[in-house]
Specification:
This protein is mainly beta. The protein is about 0% helix and about 40% strand. Strands 3, 4, 5, 6 and 7 form a five-stranded antiparallel sheet that branches. It has a four-stranded antiparallel sheet with strand order 8-9-10-11, with no helix packed on it. Strands 12-13-14 form a three-stranded antiparallel sheet, with no helix packed on it. Strand 6 and strand 7 form a beta hairpin. It is globular. It starts with a strand and ends in a 9-residue tail after the last strand.
């Protein structure tokens, strides 16, 4: 069941989570849209242990809306993907496939998570970047995206590395 806590620390129960809602391994992002703070989850594993490729959003934490079309497959089912907001888009990076292997693909959403497209050759990770899941992503003040650690498979050790990159045009001074 969904729940939300007020600033005063009062917990309010919400709707019952649907069977397709991820309960582990999902990517989460807090963002502002239409003057409201929102929370989004993408991909992950359901309570039944199935991987999902759906995006969900809420503005109150008690009720969630499925953003993606349930019959479409914008990106493969995965868990442990990284999600961030960069260059006025949502970026979904990597994650573990149903086979448990890390990926290095990048999917973009320009409509707040409703649709997703594989990034073109202008936005890509270097060939030396090993596919991974469960890495952390931060966008810093100079508009560099930093990718920390992760694992190349579910059973692999954590990676001890940081990758830094930027879309070139974001580095030019106006």
């Amino acid at each position: 069941q969904f729940a939300a806590m007020s600033e005063a620390g009062v917990l309010t129960m919400g709707e019952i989570a649907p069977d397709q809602f991820p309960v582990s391994g999902f990517s989460a992002l807090s963002y502002n849209s239409m003057y409201f703070a929102r929370l989004m989850t993408v991909a992950g594993k359901t309570a039944a242990g199935e991987l999902t490729n759906a995006a969900w959003s809420t503005f109150d934490g008690k009720s969630w809306a499925l953003l993606t079309d349930a019959s479409s497959s914008y990106f493969g089912k995965r868990e442990g993907a990284s999600l961030t907001y960069y260059d006025d888009k949502f970026f979904l990076i990597g994650g573990f496939t149903t086979a448990g292997n890390g990926t290095s693909d990048i999917y973009l959403s320009i409509d707040k998570g409703v649709s997703w497209a594989l990034a073109d050759s202008m936005v890509m990770l270097p060939s030396a970047f090993a596919g991974r899941g469960y890495s952390s992503v931060v966008v810093e003040k100079n508009k560099y995206m930093l990718i920390f650690g992760g694992k190349t498979s579910n059973n692999a050790a954590s990676l001890n590395e940081i990758w830094r990159g930027r879309i070139n045009r974001l580095g030019f001074k106006k």
